[in-house]
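Technical annex, item 7. During the second reporting period the consortium partners agreed on a shared format for inverse folding records so that results from different sites could be compared directly. Each record opens with the tokenized structure and is followed by the designed sequence. A conforming record, contributed by the partner at site C, is shown below for reference.
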């Protein structure tokens, strides 16, 4: 059976994607998770000890699966395991390997559903549900996120305190009216941590329909 696919994408690298994915994993025991890391054969410009995957790249997409290969405390994939994922797949690719890589990673999924943290892969496939995580202040939208907006089901506003304040939505609404993407953003539901039960219900309905 083809698994239900849920994308967790983000405007930027600090938009709270992993935190959101982990919250959803807790509600869907038995589901798996895929982490997509894109790299290139040179330093990414950030702290190489923190993020760079250039030394892990190969001529083919690299996929690491299972707890032994993907569990590191505090890292994104480790957090997936701690949140209850039944298996975790770490896909490491160059820009030109994304399409082949995501197909191969999905081929390893045996659960009835999978959460995929990444954005660029949406250029090559459709998913059953797609959440775009963003800061209430909006900020700069990376090119891959801009391209993925057409496939986005809802915007999720992430805040470090994980609590909606009276200004959370207003701040985002004021921001998006000033950007070129205002038209499509205006059509998307905007959610916060308070709306997690509704988001979970939406995904569960998709799962139920898939097995009906």
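Designed sequence (site C submission):
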């Amino acid at each position: 059976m083809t698994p239900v696919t849920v994308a967790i994408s983000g405007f930027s690298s600090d938009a709270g994607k992993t935190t959101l994915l982990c919250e959803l994993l807790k509600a869907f025991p038995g589901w798996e998770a895929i982490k997509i890391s894109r790299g290139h054969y040179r330093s990414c410009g950030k702290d190489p000890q923190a993020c760079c995957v250039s030394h892990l790249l190969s001529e083919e997409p690299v996929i690491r699966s299972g707890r032994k290969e993907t569990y590191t405390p505090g890292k994104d994939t480790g957090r997936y395991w701690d949140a209850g994922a039944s298996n975790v797949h770490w896909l490491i690719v160059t820009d030109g390997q994304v399409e082949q890589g995501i197909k191969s990673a999905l081929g390893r999924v045996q659960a009835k559903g999978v959460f995929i943290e990444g954005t660029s892969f949406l250029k090559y496939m459709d998913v059953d549900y797609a959440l775009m995580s963003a800061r209430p202040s909006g900020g700069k939208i990376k090119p891959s996120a801009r391209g993925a907006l057409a496939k986005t089901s809802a915007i999720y506003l992430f805040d470090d305190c994980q609590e909606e304040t009276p200004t959370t939505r207003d701040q985002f609404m004021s921001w998006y009216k000033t950007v070129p993407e205002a038209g499509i953003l205006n059509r998307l539901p905007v959610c916060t941590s308070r709306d997690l039960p509704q988001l979970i219900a939406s995904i569960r309905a998709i799962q139920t329909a898939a097995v009906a």
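The radius of gyration is 17 Å. The CA atoms of residues 35 and 90 lie 5 Å apart. All partners now use this format for quarterly exchanges.
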